[in-house]
Structure prediction request, 216 residues.
Amino acid sequence: MEKLQLGVREREKRGKGSCKKLRRDGIVPAILYGGEDNIPLMINSKKLLKALETAAGMNIILNLRFEDGRGHERLTIIKDLQRHPLRRDIVHVDLMEVSMDREIIIKVKVRLVGEPVGVKQKGGMLSQQMREMRLTCLADRIPNEITVEVSHLDVGDAIHIKDILAGEGIKILESPEATVASVSMLKAEEVKAEAAVAAAPAEAGVTEPPEEKAKE
Prediction:
């Protein structure tokens, strides 16, 4: 698991007004959980975005370095991240302190790999029923994602949690019988609908959906 150092400062003022001012100045308000007390923080938005651009994404381990002259550090992961509904910039982040010798529970994305034989040769349809799953492991064993090979799936086949090997030291917390992905035949009405869409003339223009109203 990738680890990155990130400078932070403790935040004295709280409230919506204070947080809005911080965001205008390029600062993301944050809270650190897991210690004796919850600590409100300030993080440079550009540095935070750069950290999230790594392969680990949301599951990166952040070594917080407090820029207060005392040089103390905290090892953390991202517990929750909130974005503006329109601009999609980060407006708040919750961090959880972790220990390298204590297991944690975390959600990881599921990525399907390959084209099923039932799709390629028999016209079936691949469905992904699970797009993320809960795991428990040590912080340095958190995978960037769980990849699931689906090339061997024929029509009527499925992959369940019990079929997946997550890796050494990683335990999947979902039900063993839960379906991750499956291949099925398209129903007659679905085949007709797809054919109708393919045969329809191209639209002269595209109407953009109305913008979502900001919820700040």
